[in-house]
Amino acid sequence: MKQSSMVHSCSMLFRFVVFLISFSTTSTCRSSMLKKPCCKIGLTGGEIQDHYNLKTLDYWNMNDNHINMIKSTHLCRLNHSDNSMQMCVSYHYLRDSINSLNPSLVYKSIKKQRKNIKTYLISNLFEMDCIATKFLVVLLSLWLSCIHAIQTGRFPAILAFGDSILDTGNNNKLMTVSKSNFLPYGRNFPYHIPTGRFGNGRVLSDLVAEGLGIKNLVPAFRSSFLKSSDLPTGVCFASGGSGLDKFTASIQGVIWVQDQLKDFQSYIQKLSQEVGDAAKVKEIIANAVVLISAGNNDIAITFFATRAKKLRYNIETYTDQLIEWKTAFMQNLYNMGARKFAVLGTLPLGCLPGARQLSGDLICLPHVNHGAKIYNQKVANLVVNFRQSLPDGKFVYIDMYNSLLDVIENPSKYGFRTAKPCCCSVMTPIPCLDSGSHVFWDFAHPSEKAYKAVLPNIVSVISNKLA
Where does the signal sequence lie (predicted)? Predict the structure, then answer.
Protein backbone atom coordinates (compact mmCIF):
# COMPACT_ATOMS: atom_id res chain seq x y z
CA MET A 1 0.00 0.00 0.00
CA LYS A 2 1.38 3.42 -0.93
CA GLN A 3 2.14 5.76 1.96
CA SER A 4 -0.44 8.43 1.09
CA SER A 5 -3.29 5.94 0.84
CA MET A 6 -2.06 4.18 3.98
CA VAL A 7 -2.14 7.44 5.92
CA HIS A 8 -5.67 8.11 4.65
CA SER A 9 -6.78 4.60 5.61
CA CYS A 10 -5.33 4.96 9.10
CA SER A 11 -7.08 8.29 9.47
CA MET A 12 -10.43 6.79 8.44
CA LEU A 13 -9.87 3.85 10.79
CA PHE A 14 -9.19 6.25 13.62
CA ARG A 15 -12.39 8.19 12.89
CA PHE A 16 -14.32 4.93 13.02
CA VAL A 17 -12.69 4.12 16.37
CA VAL A 18 -13.84 7.49 17.70
CA PHE A 19 -17.38 6.78 16.47
CA LEU A 20 -17.37 3.50 18.40
CA ILE A 21 -16.10 5.31 21.46
CA SER A 22 -19.09 7.61 21.16
CA PHE A 23 -21.41 4.65 20.67
CA SER A 24 -19.99 2.70 23.60
CA THR A 25 -20.21 5.64 25.97
CA THR A 26 -23.79 6.53 25.01
CA SER A 27 -25.66 3.26 24.51
CA THR A 28 -24.06 -0.13 24.99
CA CYS A 29 -22.27 0.88 28.15
CA ARG A 30 -25.05 3.08 29.51
CA SER A 31 -25.80 0.67 32.33
CA SER A 32 -22.14 0.44 33.23
CA MET A 33 -21.82 4.19 33.31
CA LEU A 34 -24.41 4.31 36.09
CA LYS A 35 -21.81 2.67 38.27
CA LYS A 36 -18.61 4.16 36.83
CA PRO A 37 -17.71 7.09 34.57
CA CYS A 38 -16.86 5.03 31.48
CA CYS A 39 -16.08 1.61 30.15
CA LYS A 40 -12.94 0.39 31.86
CA ILE A 41 -9.92 -0.75 29.95
CA GLY A 42 -7.47 -2.22 32.44
CA LEU A 43 -3.87 -1.40 31.57
CA THR A 44 -1.67 -2.92 34.25
CA GLY A 45 2.00 -2.22 34.67
CA GLY A 46 3.91 0.12 36.93
CA GLU A 47 6.21 1.15 34.12
CA ILE A 48 3.31 2.74 32.22
CA GLN A 49 2.32 4.70 35.30
CA ASP A 50 5.90 5.89 35.71
CA HIS A 51 6.29 7.06 32.11
CA TYR A 52 3.33 9.39 31.83
CA ASN A 53 2.14 12.54 33.54
CA LEU A 54 -1.61 12.12 33.89
CA LYS A 55 -2.35 15.82 34.09
CA THR A 56 -1.32 16.40 30.50
CA LEU A 57 -1.07 12.67 29.69
CA ASP A 58 1.41 12.57 26.86
CA TYR A 59 0.14 9.00 26.55
CA TRP A 60 -0.11 9.00 22.78
CA ASN A 61 2.94 11.18 22.21
CA MET A 62 0.79 13.82 20.55
CA ASN A 63 0.97 17.59 20.72
CA ASP A 64 -1.77 20.18 20.24
CA ASN A 65 -1.47 19.90 16.48
CA HIS A 66 -2.28 16.21 16.56
CA ILE A 67 -5.02 14.56 18.61
CA ASN A 68 -5.58 15.71 22.20
CA MET A 69 -6.94 12.37 23.21
CA ILE A 70 -6.89 12.89 26.94
CA LYS A 71 -5.89 16.19 28.53
CA SER A 72 -7.04 16.24 32.14
CA THR A 73 -7.54 14.04 35.15
CA HIS A 74 -11.32 14.32 34.74
CA LEU A 75 -10.97 12.24 31.53
CA CYS A 76 -8.54 9.68 32.89
CA ARG A 77 -8.25 8.37 36.43
CA LEU A 78 -5.42 6.39 37.94
CA ASN A 79 -6.02 3.85 40.71
CA HIS A 80 -2.76 4.21 42.61
CA SER A 81 -3.48 1.20 44.82
CA ASP A 82 -3.14 -1.38 42.05
CA ASN A 83 -1.13 0.60 39.47
CA SER A 84 -3.87 0.13 36.89
CA MET A 85 -4.66 2.69 34.22
CA GLN A 86 -8.26 3.50 33.42
CA MET A 87 -8.52 5.12 30.01
CA CYS A 88 -11.81 7.03 30.01
CA VAL A 89 -12.60 8.75 26.74
CA SER A 90 -15.19 11.48 26.25
CA TYR A 91 -16.43 11.60 22.68
CA HIS A 92 -17.59 15.18 22.98
CA TYR A 93 -14.10 16.21 24.08
CA LEU A 94 -12.52 14.22 21.27
CA ARG A 95 -14.83 15.49 18.56
CA ASP A 96 -13.25 18.93 18.23
CA SER A 97 -9.78 17.40 18.10
CA ILE A 98 -10.62 14.80 15.50
CA ASN A 99 -12.19 17.39 13.22
CA SER A 100 -8.84 19.14 12.97
CA LEU A 101 -6.83 15.94 12.47
CA ASN A 102 -4.06 16.28 9.90
CA PRO A 103 -3.73 12.80 8.33
CA SER A 104 -0.16 13.44 7.19
CA LEU A 105 0.90 13.73 10.82
CA VAL A 106 -0.83 10.58 12.04
CA TYR A 107 2.25 8.40 11.72
CA LYS A 108 4.10 10.60 14.24
CA SER A 109 1.56 9.93 16.98
CA ILE A 110 2.87 6.56 18.14
CA LYS A 111 6.57 5.86 18.69
CA LYS A 112 8.01 3.93 21.62
CA GLN A 113 4.61 3.53 23.30
CA ARG A 114 3.03 1.61 20.40
CA LYS A 115 4.16 -1.88 21.40
CA ASN A 116 3.44 -1.39 25.11
CA ILE A 117 -0.04 0.00 24.46
CA LYS A 118 -0.91 -2.76 22.03
CA THR A 119 0.40 -5.49 24.34
CA TYR A 120 -1.50 -4.25 27.35
CA LEU A 121 -4.72 -3.70 25.42
CA ILE A 122 -4.74 -7.22 24.02
CA SER A 123 -3.64 -8.85 27.28
CA ASN A 124 -6.56 -7.26 29.12
CA LEU A 125 -9.11 -7.72 26.35
CA PHE A 126 -11.03 -10.52 28.04
CA GLU A 127 -11.21 -8.70 31.37
CA MET A 128 -13.27 -5.90 29.89
CA ASP A 129 -16.91 -5.73 30.86
CA CYS A 130 -18.28 -4.19 27.69
CA ILE A 131 -18.63 -5.93 24.30
CA ALA A 132 -18.42 -2.70 22.36
CA THR A 133 -15.26 -1.79 24.23
CA LYS A 134 -13.69 -5.13 23.35
CA PHE A 135 -14.43 -4.53 19.69
CA LEU A 136 -13.07 -1.02 20.05
CA VAL A 137 -9.78 -2.32 21.46
CA VAL A 138 -9.36 -4.75 18.56
CA LEU A 139 -9.80 -1.87 16.11
CA LEU A 140 -7.45 0.28 18.15
CA SER A 141 -4.86 -2.48 17.96
CA LEU A 142 -5.27 -2.56 14.18
CA TRP A 143 -4.83 1.20 14.12
CA LEU A 144 -1.57 0.92 16.07
CA SER A 145 -0.30 -1.64 13.55
CA CYS A 146 -1.36 0.67 10.75
CA ILE A 147 0.63 3.49 12.33
CA HIS A 148 3.68 1.22 12.61
CA ALA A 149 3.43 0.34 8.92
CA ILE A 150 3.48 4.02 8.03
CA GLN A 151 6.39 4.70 10.37
CA THR A 152 8.57 2.03 8.80
CA GLY A 153 7.50 2.99 5.29
CA ARG A 154 7.83 6.75 5.46
CA PHE A 155 10.47 6.69 2.69
CA PRO A 156 9.07 5.48 -0.64
CA ALA A 157 12.42 4.58 -2.19
CA ILE A 158 16.18 4.35 -1.80
CA LEU A 159 18.70 5.54 -4.39
CA ALA A 160 22.30 4.42 -3.85
CA PHE A 161 25.35 6.06 -5.43
CA GLY A 162 29.07 5.52 -5.09
CA ASP A 163 31.27 2.48 -4.61
CA SER A 164 31.38 -1.19 -3.61
CA ILE A 165 29.97 -0.58 -0.12
CA LEU A 166 26.62 -0.04 -1.87
CA ASP A 167 27.05 -1.70 -5.30
CA THR A 168 24.57 -4.51 -5.90
CA GLY A 169 25.81 -5.64 -9.31
CA ASN A 170 26.36 -2.73 -11.69
CA ASN A 171 29.85 -3.95 -12.68
CA ASN A 172 28.73 -7.33 -13.95
CA LYS A 173 28.69 -6.34 -17.62
CA LEU A 174 31.77 -4.12 -17.50
CA MET A 175 35.24 -5.03 -18.78
CA THR A 176 36.84 -4.75 -15.37
CA VAL A 177 38.55 -6.90 -12.77
CA SER A 178 36.42 -5.15 -10.13
CA LYS A 179 33.72 -7.79 -10.23
CA SER A 180 32.21 -10.16 -7.73
CA ASN A 181 29.63 -12.10 -9.73
CA PHE A 182 31.37 -15.40 -9.07
CA LEU A 183 31.74 -17.79 -6.16
CA PRO A 184 32.56 -17.67 -3.32
CA TYR A 185 31.02 -14.17 -3.37
CA GLY A 186 27.34 -14.41 -2.53
CA ARG A 187 27.88 -17.57 -0.52
CA ASN A 188 25.38 -16.46 2.11
CA PHE A 189 23.06 -14.68 -0.29
CA PRO A 190 19.64 -16.29 -0.86
CA TYR A 191 20.14 -19.45 -2.93
CA HIS A 192 23.92 -18.83 -2.73
CA ILE A 193 23.88 -16.71 -5.88
CA PRO A 194 26.84 -14.39 -6.65
CA THR A 195 24.97 -11.30 -7.79
CA GLY A 196 27.86 -8.89 -8.11
CA ARG A 197 27.64 -7.69 -4.52
CA PHE A 198 31.06 -7.32 -2.94
CA GLY A 199 30.49 -9.58 0.04
CA ASN A 200 29.25 -12.92 1.26
CA GLY A 201 25.61 -11.78 1.26
CA ARG A 202 23.70 -8.54 1.22
CA VAL A 203 25.54 -5.24 1.29
CA LEU A 204 24.86 -2.01 3.14
CA SER A 205 22.39 -0.56 0.63
CA ASP A 206 20.20 -3.67 0.94
CA LEU A 207 20.28 -3.60 4.73
CA VAL A 208 19.53 0.12 5.00
CA ALA A 209 16.57 -0.31 2.64
CA GLU A 210 15.27 -3.16 4.78
CA GLY A 211 15.85 -1.23 8.00
CA LEU A 212 13.82 1.69 6.65
CA GLY A 213 10.98 -0.59 5.62
CA ILE A 214 11.45 -0.05 1.88
CA LYS A 215 12.48 -3.49 0.61
CA ASN A 216 14.96 -6.27 1.36
CA LEU A 217 17.06 -6.09 -1.80
CA VAL A 218 18.03 -3.05 -3.87
CA PRO A 219 18.46 -4.05 -7.53
CA ALA A 220 21.33 -2.75 -9.63
CA PHE A 221 20.12 -0.29 -12.24
CA ARG A 222 22.28 -1.94 -14.93
CA SER A 223 21.11 -5.43 -14.06
CA SER A 224 19.55 -7.50 -16.85
CA PHE A 225 17.04 -8.72 -14.30
CA LEU A 226 15.77 -5.29 -13.26
CA LYS A 227 11.97 -5.20 -13.23
CA SER A 228 10.00 -2.06 -14.01
CA SER A 229 8.00 -2.72 -10.84
CA ASP A 230 11.21 -2.24 -8.82
CA LEU A 231 11.69 1.34 -10.03
CA PRO A 232 9.24 3.14 -7.69
CA THR A 233 11.02 1.79 -4.61
CA GLY A 234 14.51 2.62 -5.84
CA VAL A 235 17.62 1.12 -7.36
CA CYS A 236 21.39 1.15 -6.96
CA PHE A 237 23.70 3.12 -9.27
CA ALA A 238 26.91 2.50 -7.29
CA SER A 239 29.90 0.85 -8.95
CA GLY A 240 32.56 -1.11 -7.07
CA GLY A 241 35.97 0.56 -7.34
CA SER A 242 34.56 3.94 -8.28
CA GLY A 243 35.28 7.33 -6.79
CA LEU A 244 34.86 11.07 -7.05
CA ASP A 245 38.13 11.32 -8.98
CA LYS A 246 37.67 10.27 -12.60
CA PHE A 247 41.15 8.73 -12.49
CA THR A 248 39.99 6.33 -9.76
CA ALA A 249 37.21 4.95 -11.95
CA SER A 250 39.20 4.94 -15.19
CA ILE A 251 42.12 2.84 -13.90
CA GLN A 252 39.64 0.11 -12.94
CA GLY A 253 37.22 0.50 -15.82
CA VAL A 254 34.18 1.15 -13.63
CA ILE A 255 31.39 3.74 -13.54
CA TRP A 256 32.65 7.14 -12.39
CA VAL A 257 30.45 8.71 -9.73
CA GLN A 258 29.63 11.66 -11.98
CA ASP A 259 28.58 9.25 -14.75
CA GLN A 260 26.18 7.61 -12.33
CA LEU A 261 24.13 10.79 -12.72
CA LYS A 262 23.54 9.79 -16.36
CA ASP A 263 22.11 6.49 -15.13
CA PHE A 264 19.98 8.43 -12.67
CA GLN A 265 18.58 10.55 -15.49
CA SER A 266 17.75 7.39 -17.40
CA TYR A 267 16.11 6.01 -14.27
CA ILE A 268 13.87 9.08 -13.99
CA GLN A 269 12.70 8.55 -17.56
CA LYS A 270 11.93 4.87 -16.94
CA LEU A 271 10.22 5.72 -13.66
CA SER A 272 8.01 8.22 -15.49
CA GLN A 273 6.98 5.52 -17.94
CA GLU A 274 6.22 3.12 -15.09
CA VAL A 275 4.31 5.57 -12.88
CA GLY A 276 2.73 7.65 -15.64
CA ASP A 277 2.38 10.70 -13.42
CA ALA A 278 4.99 13.48 -13.40
CA ALA A 279 3.88 14.74 -9.99
CA LYS A 280 4.20 11.25 -8.50
CA VAL A 281 7.69 10.83 -9.98
CA LYS A 282 8.74 14.12 -8.43
CA GLU A 283 7.27 13.04 -5.09
CA ILE A 284 9.11 9.70 -5.12
CA ILE A 285 12.48 11.27 -5.88
CA ALA A 286 12.01 14.10 -3.38
CA ASN A 287 11.18 11.67 -0.57
CA ALA A 288 13.62 8.91 -1.47
CA VAL A 289 16.69 8.36 0.70
CA VAL A 290 19.74 9.18 -1.40
CA LEU A 291 22.56 7.05 0.00
CA ILE A 292 26.08 8.13 -1.03
CA SER A 293 29.37 6.34 -0.38
CA ALA A 294 32.26 7.93 -2.26
CA GLY A 295 35.88 8.64 -1.36
CA ASN A 296 37.06 5.25 -0.10
CA ASN A 297 38.84 4.31 -3.33
CA ASP A 298 40.09 7.82 -4.02
CA ILE A 299 42.00 7.89 -0.75
CA ALA A 300 42.97 4.23 -0.34
CA ILE A 301 43.92 3.52 -3.97
CA THR A 302 44.41 6.69 -6.00
CA PHE A 303 46.21 8.71 -3.33
CA PHE A 304 48.00 6.18 -1.13
CA ALA A 305 48.44 3.15 -3.40
CA THR A 306 49.59 5.03 -6.52
CA ARG A 307 51.89 7.97 -7.07
CA ALA A 308 49.63 9.61 -9.62
CA LYS A 309 48.30 12.28 -7.26
CA LYS A 310 51.16 12.73 -4.79
CA LEU A 311 53.19 14.66 -7.35
CA ARG A 312 50.46 17.29 -7.46
CA TYR A 313 48.67 17.10 -4.11
CA ASN A 314 49.22 16.47 -0.44
CA ILE A 315 46.44 14.87 1.59
CA GLU A 316 44.95 18.24 2.56
CA THR A 317 44.74 19.59 -0.96
CA TYR A 318 43.60 16.28 -2.43
CA THR A 319 40.74 15.94 0.05
CA ASP A 320 39.81 19.55 -0.72
CA GLN A 321 39.57 18.56 -4.37
CA LEU A 322 37.45 15.53 -3.47
CA ILE A 323 35.08 17.76 -1.52
CA GLU A 324 34.79 20.10 -4.49
CA TRP A 325 33.81 17.17 -6.71
CA LYS A 326 31.43 15.84 -4.07
CA THR A 327 29.78 19.25 -3.74
CA ALA A 328 29.12 19.39 -7.47
CA PHE A 329 27.79 15.82 -7.45
CA MET A 330 25.34 16.45 -4.62
CA GLN A 331 24.25 19.77 -6.11
CA ASN A 332 23.47 18.00 -9.38
CA LEU A 333 21.40 15.42 -7.53
CA TYR A 334 19.54 18.22 -5.77
CA ASN A 335 18.90 19.97 -9.08
CA MET A 336 17.45 16.70 -10.40
CA GLY A 337 14.91 16.58 -7.58
CA ALA A 338 16.61 14.71 -4.72
CA ARG A 339 16.00 16.21 -1.28
CA LYS A 340 16.97 13.64 1.35
CA PHE A 341 20.68 12.84 1.50
CA ALA A 342 22.47 10.33 3.74
CA VAL A 343 26.18 10.85 3.12
CA LEU A 344 28.55 8.15 4.35
CA GLY A 345 32.07 8.87 5.49
CA THR A 346 34.84 6.49 4.55
CA LEU A 347 35.66 3.30 6.40
CA PRO A 348 38.79 3.21 8.61
CA LEU A 349 40.84 2.59 5.48
CA GLY A 350 44.12 1.92 7.26
CA CYS A 351 42.49 -0.96 9.14
CA LEU A 352 41.14 -2.80 6.12
CA PRO A 353 42.79 -6.21 5.65
CA GLY A 354 44.41 -5.11 2.40
CA ALA A 355 46.13 -2.24 4.20
CA ARG A 356 47.04 -4.20 7.31
CA GLN A 357 48.74 -6.93 5.33
CA LEU A 358 51.37 -4.33 4.34
CA SER A 359 52.40 -4.25 8.00
CA GLY A 360 52.28 -8.01 8.36
CA ASP A 361 48.77 -7.74 9.79
CA LEU A 362 50.22 -6.23 12.94
CA ILE A 363 48.75 -2.73 13.01
CA CYS A 364 46.45 -0.43 11.12
CA LEU A 365 48.27 2.00 8.83
CA PRO A 366 48.11 5.30 10.74
CA HIS A 367 48.86 7.59 7.80
CA VAL A 368 46.00 6.08 5.76
CA ASN A 369 43.59 6.40 8.67
CA HIS A 370 44.76 9.98 9.13
CA GLY A 371 43.87 10.75 5.54
CA ALA A 372 40.46 9.15 5.98
CA LYS A 373 39.76 11.22 9.09
CA ILE A 374 40.75 14.45 7.35
CA TYR A 375 38.39 13.67 4.50
CA ASN A 376 35.54 12.58 6.78
CA GLN A 377 35.66 15.80 8.77
CA LYS A 378 35.40 17.78 5.55
CA VAL A 379 32.45 15.65 4.43
CA ALA A 380 30.71 16.29 7.76
CA ASN A 381 31.29 20.03 7.31
CA LEU A 382 29.97 19.82 3.76
CA VAL A 383 26.75 18.26 5.01
CA VAL A 384 26.31 21.13 7.47
CA ASN A 385 26.90 23.66 4.69
CA PHE A 386 24.28 22.01 2.48
CA ARG A 387 21.84 21.96 5.37
CA GLN A 388 22.26 25.69 5.82
CA SER A 389 22.28 26.70 2.17
CA LEU A 390 19.43 24.45 1.01
CA PRO A 391 16.83 24.54 3.79
CA ASP A 392 14.21 22.65 1.78
CA GLY A 393 16.58 19.69 1.60
CA LYS A 394 17.59 17.33 4.40
CA PHE A 395 21.18 16.20 4.81
CA VAL A 396 22.78 13.87 7.32
CA TYR A 397 26.34 12.60 7.76
CA ILE A 398 26.81 8.90 8.57
CA ASP A 399 29.97 8.11 10.54
CA MET A 400 31.18 4.81 9.11
CA TYR A 401 34.75 5.26 10.35
CA ASN A 402 34.25 5.07 14.12
CA SER A 403 31.37 2.61 14.08
CA LEU A 404 33.29 0.03 12.04
CA LEU A 405 36.56 0.75 13.85
CA ASP A 406 34.92 -0.29 17.12
CA VAL A 407 33.88 -3.59 15.53
CA ILE A 408 37.43 -4.15 14.21
CA GLU A 409 39.06 -3.38 17.55
CA ASN A 410 36.50 -5.29 19.63
CA PRO A 411 35.29 -8.17 17.47
CA SER A 412 34.11 -10.37 20.35
CA LYS A 413 31.87 -7.55 21.57
CA TYR A 414 29.86 -7.93 18.38
CA GLY A 415 29.96 -11.72 18.18
CA PHE A 416 33.03 -12.10 15.91
CA ARG A 417 36.07 -14.24 16.45
CA THR A 418 38.50 -12.22 14.33
CA ALA A 419 38.89 -9.08 12.23
CA LYS A 420 40.81 -11.03 9.59
CA PRO A 421 39.06 -11.62 6.26
CA CYS A 422 37.20 -14.82 5.53
CA CYS A 423 38.08 -14.97 1.87
CA CYS A 424 39.86 -13.72 -1.17
CA SER A 425 43.02 -12.19 0.22
CA VAL A 426 46.68 -13.02 0.69
CA MET A 427 45.95 -13.85 4.33
CA THR A 428 43.09 -16.21 3.48
CA PRO A 429 43.59 -17.79 0.04
CA ILE A 430 41.12 -20.52 0.99
CA PRO A 431 37.68 -19.28 2.10
CA CYS A 432 36.83 -19.83 5.75
CA LEU A 433 33.95 -22.10 6.73
CA ASP A 434 32.12 -19.60 8.94
CA SER A 435 31.91 -16.08 7.52
CA GLY A 436 29.82 -15.05 10.52
CA SER A 437 32.88 -15.20 12.75
CA HIS A 438 34.83 -12.71 10.58
CA VAL A 439 34.42 -8.93 10.53
CA PHE A 440 35.63 -8.83 6.91
CA TRP A 441 34.65 -10.95 3.97
CA ASP A 442 37.61 -10.10 1.75
CA PHE A 443 40.56 -7.71 1.64
CA ALA A 444 38.39 -4.56 1.72
CA HIS A 445 34.74 -5.38 2.36
CA PRO A 446 32.95 -6.08 5.63
CA SER A 447 30.86 -9.22 5.94
CA GLU A 448 27.09 -8.97 5.99
CA LYS A 449 27.13 -9.55 9.73
CA ALA A 450 29.56 -6.66 10.20
CA TYR A 451 27.27 -4.35 8.24
CA LYS A 452 24.42 -5.47 10.47
CA ALA A 453 26.49 -4.61 13.53
CA VAL A 454 26.70 -0.94 12.52
CA LEU A 455 23.27 -0.81 10.87
CA PRO A 456 21.04 0.20 13.84
CA ASN A 457 22.76 3.56 14.27
CA ILE A 458 22.62 4.26 10.53
CA VAL A 459 18.91 3.52 10.31
CA SER A 460 18.23 5.54 13.45
CA VAL A 461 20.07 8.60 12.15
CA ILE A 462 18.33 8.45 8.79
CA SER A 463 14.91 7.92 10.35
CA ASN A 464 15.29 10.77 12.81
CA LYS A 465 17.00 13.30 10.55
CA LEU A 466 15.50 12.72 7.12
CA ALA A 467 11.87 11.84 7.85
Answer: 1-28
pLDDT digits (tens, 9 = 90+) for 62-93: 344 333 443 333 333 343 333 333 333 333 33
Q: Is 47 exposed, middle or buried (0-12, 13-18, 19+ CB in 10 A)?
A: exposed
Cβ atoms 167, 198 nearer than 8 A: yes
* Residue 164 among the catalytic residues: yes
Q: Check 163, 230, 245, 442 and give the catalytic one.
A: 442
Distances in Å between the Cα of 343 and the Cα atoms of 45, 154, 269 are: 42, 19, 25
442 is catalytic: yes
Please answer whether residues 178 and 166 qualify as being in contact, where contact means their C-beta atoms are separated by less than 8 angstroms.
no
Judged on CB neighbours under 10 Å (0-12, 13-18, 19+), 152 is: middle
Q: Which of 109, 164, 180, 425 is catalytic?
A: 164
Residue 179 backbone phi and psi in degrees, to 5: -130, 160
Segment (H or E) for 455: helix 448-466
**Is 367 assigned a catalytic role?**
no
Sketch the domain layout of the chain as residue ranges. 3-152, 158-466
Give the DSSP per-residue string, 102-124.
-GGGGGGS-STHHHHHHHHHHHT
Q: Who contacts 304 (Cβ-Cβ below 8 Å, separation ≥6)?
A: 349, 367, 368, 371
Cis geometry, peptide bond prior to residue 184 (ω within 30 degrees of 0): yes
Which CATH number describes the domain made up of 158-466? 3.40.50.1110
Note the pLDDT tens digit of each residue in 188-220: 999 999 999 999 999 999 999 999 999 999 999
* Spatial distance between the Cα atoms of 328 and 387, rounded to a whole number of angstroms: 15
